[in-house]
Fold these 2 entries.
Entry 1:
Amino acid sequence: MIPAPFDYERAESVEHALSLLAEREDAKLLAGGHSLLPLLRLRAVRPSLLVDVGRIEGLAYVRDAGAAIAIGALTRHHDLARSPLLQEHNPLVSRAAGLVGDPQVRHRGTIGGSLAHGDPASDLPAVLLALDGEVDVAGPDGVRTVAARDFFLGPFQTAVGQREMVTEVRVPKLTGDHVWSYLKFRRRAQDWATVGVAALARRSDGGVAEPAIALVNMGATPLRAVAAEAAWAAGEDPGALAAEGTEPPSDTNGSAEYRRHLAQVLVRRAVAEAAAR
Amino acid sequence: MSAQTEVALGRIIGAPVQRKEDGKLLQGQALWVDDMHVPGTVYLGVVRSPYAHARIVEVDVAPALAHAGVVAAWSGADLAEEWAGSLPCAWLPTEDTRAPEHKPLAVDKARYAGDAVAVVAATSRAAAEDAAELVEVEYEPLPAVVDPEAALADGAPLVHDELGTNRCYTWSLEAGEVDRLFAEAAVTVSQRYRQNRLVPNAMEPRAVFVQTVPATGEYTIWSTTQVPHILRLTLSGVLGIPEAKLRVVAPDVGGGFGSKLDVYAEEALALAVARRLGRPVRWTETRSEGYLSTIHGRDQIQEIELAATAEGRITAVRVRLLASMGAYLQLVTPGIPLLGARLYAGAYDVQGYSFRCDGVFTNTVPTDAYRGAGRPEATYAIERAVDALARAVGKDPVEIRRLNFIREFPATIASGLTIDSGDYEALLDRLLEHVDLPAFRGRQEARREAGDPKRLGIGFSTYVEMCGLAPSRILGASRYGAGGWDTATIRCLPTGTVQVVTGTSPHGQGHETAWAQIVADRLGYELDEIEVLHGDTAVAPLGMDTYGSRSLAVGGVALYYAAERIVEKARTLAAYRLGVDESEIEYVRGRFAGPDGSLTLKELALSAWTAHDLPEGMEPGLEASYVYDPPNFSWPAGAHAAIVEVDTETGAVELERYVAVDDVGVVVNPTIVDGQVHGGLAQGVAQALYEEAVYDDAGNLLTANMATYLVPSAAELPRFELDRLETPSPTNPLGVKGVGETGAIAAPAAVMNAIADALAADGVTDLDMPATPERVWRALREARR
Ligand SMILES: Cc1cc2nc3c(=O)[nH]c(=O)nc-3n(C[C@H](O)[C@H](O)[C@H](O)COP(=O)(O)OP(=O)(O)OC[C@H]3O[C@@H](n4cnc5c(N)ncnc54)[C@H](O)[C@@H]3O)c2cc1C
């Protein structure tokens, strides 16, 4: 379908984008467009102004930032998947980014858009949550840093305000002691996850420490499977507790009941895969 | 290799010639309906009911009229006088089939979510869509009925109040002593299957563009149609415009699979608006709109019973079908389930045959032809039931098939039709050369013994189908509203090229290439000297179009006979020019040789054109036409095997291998045939594993876009392994059968049988399509309880 009418402005810089956002209550940023355009076409959203940030210079990068890897908000999924820096220091991100949608989607979609969109079915939000990453959000009053655990507020709701813009994302460098897995269960290669699991921990004394398990599409936001994490650390079956505290949706890809079951199977497999790494 | 070499080798028919069509398609140079731009055009925006069933209380188009760029807007009532008749249904299978009124815009009631209730004409497509949103329709929602069984229950909401029932028709057939055979049977199996509702999803959405010459009252309708000829004559009836004033052009058309074998509301609307406004009018479907307004396929509940001996020899088949028509009858809606009516015994020799089908109205998008149309349904039911019988008598699925195959041809089957030719056992033998069954069983068993949660399964589908629609006499007896012939004209031009006019209307099948191969083979022209014209009623006025794997077996054969007529006339002329008797002329591909001298067909074409020196009474020009009416259907068959891996923990099914051995008669172009089989298999696998149009109880289509309706991509499909045997059809001189639908017909059963095979040891044999991970998981959980 054709979107409802809107005005269009191309932002030259973050400041420019922010000033354009400030002009209208219902202005929206446009990055890769791969979440926003489908909604526009369905006329599910009707912003009166689109602020295209896609061509702002210097916001697409993957950089070594000491203990962390810094990722510019406009970095495409494809570039995350291919980044040598991420492949070396945080392969969990590159692995998950390489499983997003299909090649077209990965060449257009950005990490900033993916996080700001706040779709609980998306891959990178759960990965960020498992990694305890952080997000820089620029606004009228400057840049603030939001921890992943405070970032996702509800379905399609994040800590990013209407007048704000995500500029950078940081994830920790993993070490040789880290074990990880990203499993995405989907009907077709290009689909969103029916359920996805990011699992991460540090090897310690024959077991694991600092376990993190985050779930995709098991509730209103990406979720940490806290009970399963504890079980994993305790050397027990994390699968059995994987669906605890979740409120998965029911749709044509699976009922809530089936998703709970899937979460159990996938968490078990993810932990096994991580352990085998 | 050049055509000339091929001609010399005598192998132009059967050569893997590259498709002439592909260059322009791949380079974006095709001409689609949506590419036509003419100044002054108005664009239509169609207002559709969000309710599956609702009384239309009031339609207010005033807010739309006030929108910038809007030229006009009408409700159903406003346009009521435009229609001289309903949108056509050409196939009422019984005398008492109930055919409700079906106007392009609903007036009193909307009967499915997507039913068109108003239309806006504007100077741009965007304005048309914006304004369509502004039309205010007051609905009084009514209870809807979606499930065909529920539709027949007492007290069900009536889709068409005036009919007093949701039953459209009951059609039945009884042959042999079925009751006795069942009573005497040592073994019977009784199965119930669901044919999931499918959305055809042609790559090119539907579009229509109408140009008018108000001074003469003439209209040219550019449409994404498979059936320009049918469209012309039926639109004439819907609009009350003399057929001679209508020209229909199907330019390049991007797929149809049956969904463009129809006469749609939007085509009639565009024509009506062009008549009202005297301006060019165009409408292009959005993909989301397509899900709600283009016909769907399948949607049947099937009950099949087999009677058999203790060894598993089938003696009789009994079938009860419940087929959802959707809310209205489209062009051939009620006939679709009946295209399979006589095929539920499959490739097997039985004595008794009983079939009954009830067609039922529901508050859903109308169903109609979708790749295979009736035959995938029949094949699925019998092929799965045969596997159930194999389990009941403790036989292998291969063994049970061998035991029951029809072996002598031509074979008159219990349901009354005659299968022209075939060798079913040879197909199965060839299949087993590709699939090492004992080795597979070993691997399967080893997995199971190791407690691997991923099980393996193999499934077979040994199908036979009827295509090449169709002998007009049989169509008449089936109460179909037209004949099944087709036409070809060959015009040898003076410059050494040749023009072929065909009544078929390709939309992806490569007729321009295959037809050229036939002409090259018969008349000795190079492939690039042959022009194939089609899909325009002004250029090819007579034709029956393309559907039902009919084009080669009917239109291609017409072309063969037209070529014979060319040779006949040219022979007379050659004899005259060479001064010998006709009997002394030897004709070999484009050259007429007498005892001392010869002339080429091209030379003769030039002489016939100048007409300076022709035999007494011979008409100038070298041109011939033929209208061919096939004496029988053609009967492709094959043996397919699918190998799946089923993850018993998640329920996910992965298709590991798919092997298809087909007999589609003589193959004109193996590359095209491979492509047709690939596409058909993809759609067949899709029916088994991925695709399903899901309605909720209120009649909302929950899978109304490509994110939720899962069309598989190449990533989900294995590399198809294809092989072929050829038993030429004795019915036509080319020996051809048809291939457009075989893959879609065979694959669902092969895949589902494979899943059942994988899970039989876990106690699961019953599973509906599509076998989604959740369905598989639930079935396993059920079985473990
Ligand atoms: C067919 C298809 C399949 C897909 N499959 C997957 C999948 O499997 N997994 C997955 O995770 N995703 C998937 N996606 C979504 C894809 O990854 C999107 O590209 C991504 O979610 C959004 O990024 P974008 O740059 O395209 O954002 P846009 O669509 O441009 O914007 C999305 C939202 O974020 C806002 N926004 C964008 N950038 C910023 C910013 N820098 N700061 C603040 N707000 C911003 C916009 O205003 C908008 O509200 C798929 C998309 C498609 C079309």
Entry 2:
Amino acid sequence: MFDSTPSLSEPPRMSRRDLLQWFTAASAALALGQWTASADTAESTAKGYGTDPDLSKIYKPGDFWPLTLDEAQRKTVASLADVILPADHLGPAASAVGVPAFLDEWISAPYPHQKADRPVILDGLRWIDEESRRRFGKEFHAVSDAERHQICSDIAHAPAAKPELKAAVRFFSRFRALCSAAYFATPEGWKAIGYVGNVPTVTFDGPPPEVLARLGVEQTVQ
Amino acid sequence: MSFGASGLAELGFARNHPHLFFVIPLSMPLIQSQQLQSDYDAVIVGSGAGGGQTAYTLTLAGMKCLILEAGRNYDPVTETAMFQREDQAPLLGAATPDKHFGFHDATVDGGWSVPGEPYTQASEKPEEQFAWWRARMLGGRTNHWGRISLRNGPYDFKPYSRDGLGFDWPIDYADVEPYYTKTELLVGVYGTNEGLENTPDSPPGVLLPPPKGRAAELLAQKHGRSLGVPILPIHRAVLTRALDADTIPAKLHPNNPRAQRLVAQSMRERAACFWATPCGRGCSIKANYQSTTVHLPPALASGNLDILPNAHVREVLVGKDGKAAGVLFIDKTTGAEMRVKGRVVVLAASSGETARILLNSKNAQFPQGVANSSGLVGRYIMDTVGANVSGQIPLLENLPPHNEDGAGGSHFYAPWWLYQQQKAGKLDFARGYHIEMGGSRKMPGSGSSVPEDLLGGAFGTPLKEAARRYYGSFVSFSCRGEMIPNEGSFAELDPEVKDQWGVPVMRWHWKWSDHELNMARHAQQTFSELIEAMGGTVRSRKQKDPRQIIEPGGKIIHEVGGALMGADPKKSVCNGWNQTWDVKNLFLCDASSFPSNADKNPTLTIMALAWRAADYILEQARKGDL
Ligand SMILES: Cc1cc2nc3c(=O)[nH]c(=O)nc-3n(C[C@H](O)[C@H](O)[C@H](O)COP(=O)(O)OP(=O)(O)OC[C@H]3O[C@@H](n4cnc5c(N)ncnc54)[C@H](O)[C@@H]3O)c2cc1C
Ligand code: SF4
């Protein structure tokens, strides 16, 4: 989340729960004679990338563990992702920048957080196709934009949603968070939110005058 | 590939920094165990800040040294993920149990757990546990540390004399000052001199220029003023301009032309920061401090250093004369136990690990472990008091896009500012904290989604608009405060659990006193006020119980203590030269010797003390006194 942006120079934020879990899991597992990241590997026997992956490379989904989604599921993911992040004045649609493949990589990963998301996403995809068939007689990817919007509107805002849609609301919330993270991490996404870094420059000039003026501050470092 | 050369070229970067394209990796001619010499002038355990500095000083003065490093060889020039985007890493670079600080972070085989090397907790209660961050790689944690480099002030060496708590150091600021200056000149530290209480200035011309403030930093600075919180340029080990290789080496090594030449050569290989790529990934252009780019290259170039990686030291060996004779280690590549002789032995494996090696070195002379006649090895381990509050600032919404990558870490911080109130008895805790802050338009990754409560159910174009609006509008403030050593925070050998080579592991005990808890509560209050003064709303949940505010022990990764220096051999493990009282040719050159843990991050002090100890080793060796 943006709001957990870590202080740049210090360790990234990790929940107390995660932290305690990781190091107790590690010590407990060792007592049993082996180190494993998580006791629960029921869903997948795939391995992670290990504690010493090659960092100089560029990776794509599928490089480390097998992906999950079949063609039909990918279609559902792409059409839902494009409702959430459509082509518009702020850039291309999610499916044009690899968001569905990322989602597949995420739910296929052998790590605890991702494993927790997996059933939420897979059940949700099933639900949204069923719901679409029930309402409009066709799968989600095959219905009109307006019809897709109708379904999404019912599950996009937790406080306004009907209680019986609770699981679908939870799905939509995770799906939206994952897809937007993936989208804004691409060069097209950078443009959409206005990230203009990752380029070497000879000097660092700080915020431009119009930013300083808006904030009512002066540059105090000369 | 280490950086996107095409992106560089577009900017005319090649024109301005032609040498960057011809950086030849300084190959680190590391050795294998068969190539070990039969003995060395000094055997140094660990290659991080402490081991790197010790090896640098000793080898440039002509001593033949061996570094034994438990981790693998590591070359930042070829291995650093410089310009990789987060969408080019698995899971957008998110933290996982394999890479606890995210995919691109420069930690090898480490984190809160290390494969095959467990540690245990004496208590099941989370608040009595210690999280131990380790890295197993050449250069240790200096490859990925935050580079915040603050000097301890005069008060920080005499805390007991000031408030009756904890312990005084047997040395004072004046003893260490020349070494702070030398270290800053060698590694390169940016910052300003502000003339503040217990926040020392460096001599003129030593610090490099500070980077300009970012939007959130300047806004916090402005509103900090109204609350009396001085938000100022921080000090970090990043080259905001290239080091002056023509004059600095002579200042560092006045009567040693060879050392001057080697240091100058190594300095010239370090480029100035190019204001992109987060420092936590390491720096392939050597613009920030890592042991692997600053300390080890000139030491290796001297021809006086062998480095044996994958060497897990188990024990210090002691001869009949009661002196250290060398060390026993496991060659991790073969599993074989091996011995190597040294006329001096230096432990710099990080506090907890140095204490572990001493405790594991049991023999007839030292039944409680080498250098442990006081029984104090492993005692009084400290971390830093951590607490965070984050907030959202409407004024920072929808700002015109601008590049805030800057120096790859913080530019501003607030040194502790309430000395007078504390002295007047107005605070319910005894020591200070400084404030580190985050908040910038940093490269988006796995966390880049707008918090749901701010979205109001948006999807489609309104979602993108919300993301653009809120991007860069979140800030966080972190407390980095002094913990007072206590009887309940220590580590001992676990009577049962061993690591994968059969070496007994550390078992941790942890306890906060009311001083730390009250400090965390104070920090929460201050940070909330800062966020509100900036016109923002606090987003972290306000906690009444300070146990919910304070970060777990070890979490700030400023592990110090465990083999304290002192004036009395019965009440300390080593003297003011990091020399153990019991074994005069055994030195502890990491933070294990720290009798207190000032709010200032420890690494600059580790390096300054290691340099000072190494000078003492040279002097004693010359006199034949070791
Ligand atoms: C994310 C992060 C951010 C940080 N930010 C800051 C900061 O901004 N400012 C600051 O001052 N500090 C910071 N620190 C702390 C800083 O990294 C340490 O204080 C510093 O690295 C300590 O140096 P050291 O030489 O004692 O230990 P290390 O750098 O940990 O080096 C110890 C070396 O010894 C090796 N070793 C361990 N056991 C053995 C053995 N048995 N045999 C052989 N070798 C062994 C290890 O593999 C390691 O390479 C940070 C740390 C982390 C992880
Ligand atoms: S910000 Fe500067 S010092 Fe830090 S990694 Fe990037 S180039 Fe190196």
